[in-house]
Amino acid sequence: MNARLRKVTRNRGQFPSEQAALKALYLAVRNLEDYRGRNVGIRSFAWKQALQAFTVHFDGRIPTP
Hints:
3 helices; single chain
């Protein structure tokens, strides 16, 4: 997950505002959730806690199963 978030920020370079950076990271996390799926076979340490924290921070924007 960290590598994908780094890739998003590194490829972009600069952001016009903090809100734009948060939006880019939010979209990256959303895409990562779609990529992982249930049957991908990739295990992440503490993914549920991270997803819960993102759900609280991005109120209602991350769909729950």
